[in-house]
Amino acid sequence: EYKDMSKERMMEIRRQYCNPMTMKVTYYKKPVYIHQGHMQWLWDVDGRRYLDLFAGVATVSVGHCHPKVTEAAEKQLRKLWHTTNIYVYSPLHEYTEKLAATLPDPLKVIYLTNSGSEANDLAMLMARLHTGNFDVITLRGSYHGGSPLTMGLTSNAAYKYPVASGLGCHNTMCPDVFAGPWGGSNCRDSPVQTIRDCSCPQEFLCWNIPLIYFRSSITGSCTANDKYIGQLNEVFATSVASRIAAFFAEPIMGVGGAVQYPKNFLKDTYKLVRERGGVCIADEVQTGFGRTGSHFWGFQGHDVIPDMVTMAKGIANGFPMGAVVTTPEIAASFAKGVHFNTFGGNPVACAIASSVLDTMEEDGTQQISHDVGTYLLTELAKMRDKYEIIGDVRGKGLQIGVEMVKDKASRKPLPPAAMSEIFEDTKDMGVLIGKGGVYGQTFRIKPPMCITRDDADFFLAVFNQALHNYMEDHH
Ligand code: PMP
Fold first, then answer.
1. pLDDT per residue over 194-248, tens digit each?
2. Is 106 helix (H, G, I), strand (E, B) or coil?
3. Domain 70-363 grouped into CATH 3.10.450.50
4. What does the domain layout of the chain look like in residue ranges?
5. Which GO cellular component terms, listed alphabetically, does the Swiss-Prot or TrEMBL entry include (predicted)?
6. Please, is 217 exposed, middle or buried when counting C-beta atoms within 10 Å of its C-beta (0-12, 13-18, 19+)?
7. Mapping DSSP to helix (H, G, I), strand (E, B) and coil, where does residue 66 land?
């Protein structure tokens, strides 16, 4: 029988032998000592059960230790643990064929990596080699990795170090229609809208009513979008060479706090980036694999086809793996050198990832994301209307953000101490959620995609109680 170390001993070891940062990121004042997981549930070493709505940062996609995936892993572990892809073995080929089938043409050539940072590193390299250009643009507030190169793509001071990283990396204003200077009401594609008034004279065009005929006769559907695109044009005019290598963006920001862009933002940006010789890269590390509910890939919700898609996290339900998928044309530019990766395409990782895709289909995880996600968003929006400190509720499917504010009028971030009080209280009542946003002001909900409506109700009751407790104590 496996027995956990004592909590005290783990803390002692953590202090002495672990990356000192791990002391800061126990995340809670009273840390959670995890013993075991099953589907949407985690148990701590004292046998307390938690509803896990953070999934190790949107990573446990089909459920902790999902029995079908565990079985596939066990089978492969008994057969072959490792060989590099200089040899030919079945799991890699079974998997790449299956993964390619989920993506539209011409996104068919796959490179397997071991993490999201590694996938974005590789994508950046390929974009530069393919285009012969150097400059890369990302959105302010984004997270794309922590390696020296991807640290340049990431635009959040918390993850930066004062070293020579990010040569040729630039960022443009995040088109955040809640906290940014422009936008509001119906700018974005979400089941719930922000309560911020939109000053856009064409606001009526944003509503989801079938105005297709009418729309097509009018250019530019959203002046907020035009203004954020204007910011991108300023970056083109001031910061980069006339030809650029790439633009990276998540379909819905993850670490940045589930920020959603005005409806045509990615489409318009892709067009401008391509005009300057750049390739468009969708970072689907968090949004991929059905998490947004409406589509299997987040970019499909923006009506664009990227030139490259990077993925990790949910790809293998928590087993270390990542991938870059690109076009045959870009792959050909990259074939000039030898690309080698010892663990990329590991047979166990491939067997797991393959079983994850099957399980997603069998369990209907995308539909669950859509249904439970829409329910959560709708109910959270009601709470937003009730509590002065909830500024915004946004997202799609099970990629949800709840932005907390001092008050609705100022939209200033709720300070870290207050965030942490609500966060800790929610945990003490048995639910794990995440925090994000540049100021740590947004609660993030991105559970394993096996949660039920009952789980959603449990969370809503707990969160409501935590907010109520906070308001009682401070107002
Ligand atoms: N891209 C996004 C959107 C991410 O959220 C993350 C991880 N938080 C990464 C890339 C980097 O992934 P990894 O930690 O696996 O390197």
1. 877 776 766 555 654 444 444 444 445 688 899 999 999 999 999 999 999 999 9
2. coil
3. no
4. 70-363
5. mitochondrion
6. exposed
7. coil
